[in-house]
Amino acid sequence: MHVMNGALIRNRTITVRYYEPIAQDVFWSHFSSIGTPPIHRSRPNSPESESTSGRSSPEVAAQNVEDAEAERRRQEDIAQAIREAAERREKEAAAAAKEAAEAKAKKQEERRRRKEEAERAEAAARQALDAAMAEETSAGLEHMEARVTLSEVNSEMLKARMTCVEAKKAWENAEKVHAEVEKRLNEALGSMEEALQKKLLVQARRKAIEKEDREQETDEETLRQAELAESIRKMQELRLVEEAEREEREKRQREAALAEEERLKREREARAREVAERLAREREEAERMAREQREREEQQKRDAENRQRLYEQAAATERVRCQGRDLKFIFWNDQRALERFLLVSDEFDSIKFEESRPLIFENVPWPVLDPPYCQIIASIEWGAVEKFFNAMEKLLRNDKEYKALLEKTHRRFHPDKWRARGILNSVPDQGLRDRLEAAGNIVAQAITPLWRSRR
Predict the structure, then answer these.
(1) Contact 257/177 with Cβ under 8 angstroms?
(2) pLDDT, tens digit, 9 for 90 and up, residues 365-392
(3) What pLDDT, on a 0 to 100 scale, did the predictor assign at position 140?
């Protein structure tokens, strides 16, 4: 079509105008979105159009202007449609972006909410864990208190059982005393009944004798009747007297029994009070003794700690002094070992070991050939001591000097000598004291056969 533009065919000039729309993809998408295909308006090859080709140039120019105006309007319509499609797309994109932003905000809010819930759950779990640990601690304390209370209750039960046993013994003794009293009362009643029977017999005999006398004096029936009546009267009086005496006796017996029972009750109560007071005193005494024992133990513990602290300070000072003394024995041989042994021995013999200047490993003249910076308690052995004195025997040509060295060392390390000087009393640590004592005993035992062989 571009080739035919301006061509002359059959004395007619062919003018072809082609307008390509801007942003055809948006244009076509606009029509595809509204479901209406674009309409291409083209003039049909009608006779009128064909006749225009034969018109003059002004007419053709006017026609071209009209076509251009129509095309411009069409392009404006297309541009308006494109703008509307773009605005719609922008609105849709803005709506989609807003929805995405809202969805993102919702997701962030959901994540924040879940995070807060997780933090709250974690805090609650921590609180629950702390509460559980606190409850466990409280339960442990309550368990310990329950065990202490149980031991106290067991002790009280044991004391109560002992009290019951003592009360039972007292009750048995009281029953024995009551039985003895009752037995004595029965015996007394029996004696009284026998005395009354004897009295009645005596009275009956006396009456019989009186009756015989009266019968001898007179035989009158009236007299006998009078005597009989008198005897009946006297018997009645005697019976009344006996009943009164018996009631009085029973009353006295009841009063004596009540008095005895009251006395036994008072004795039991007094004995129970005495037992309770004694148990209370014993319990108070036990608590006082336990309290004093705890106080003594705490004081001993504090004293031991203070003594240990003072010992460590004094031992550190003494150790520094010994290290300064041993600086001149850096170069080591058997002669230097002998010189150091004699020097430390003189110090050891002259030191008064106490808390302010305690015994330590470094201020003991151990008879070994090891240099001072290599000596430890484990190196004090029988063989090491014998090796030292064998070397000293070779080093000391004078036999008297060697024997004197053996004798002084044997006397210096004798256990009785250490106990007499109280050397180990300056060491509060029992473990260190035992190790130093064991090392001293090894030295004494190793020197003894050497000393005996030279006597």
Answers:
(1) no
(2) 999 999 998 999 999 999 999 999 999 9
(3) 57
Please measure the distance between the N-terminal and C-terminal CA atoms of the chain and give it in whole angstroms: 149
Residue pair 322/362 in contact (Cβ under 8 Å)? The answer is: yes
The DSSP line for 330-396 is -S--HHHHHHHHHHHHHHHHH---BTTB---GGGS----SS-GGG--GGG--HHHHHHHHHHHHHH-
The Cα–Cα gap between 187 and 175 comes to 18
Instruction: Give the model confidence (pLDDT) of 22-75 as tens digits.
Output: 444 444 444 444 444 444 444 444 444 444 445 557 787 888 888 888 888 888
Our measurement of the distance from residue 267's CA atom to the centroid of its chain's CA atoms, rounded to an integer in Å, reads: 51
Residue with tokens 């805090």: 123
Tokens standing for 330? 């850096």
Is residue 413 a contact partner of residue 443, using CB atoms and an 8 Å limit? Answer: yes
**Residue 37 DSSP one-character state:** -
User: How are the residues of the chain apportioned to helix, strand and coil, as percentages rounded to the nearest 5?
Assistant: 80, 0, 15
Positions in the chain short of pLDDT 70 = 1-56, 125, 128-129, 132-134, 136-168, 170-171, 173-175, 177-182, 184-196, 198-199, 202, 209, 211-220
Helix (H, G, I), strand (E, B) or coil at 58: helix
As a whole number of angstroms, the distance between CA 25 and CA 29 comes to 6
* Residue 246 to residue 193: CA distance in whole angstroms: 10
Phi/psi for 130 (5° steps) reads -60, -40
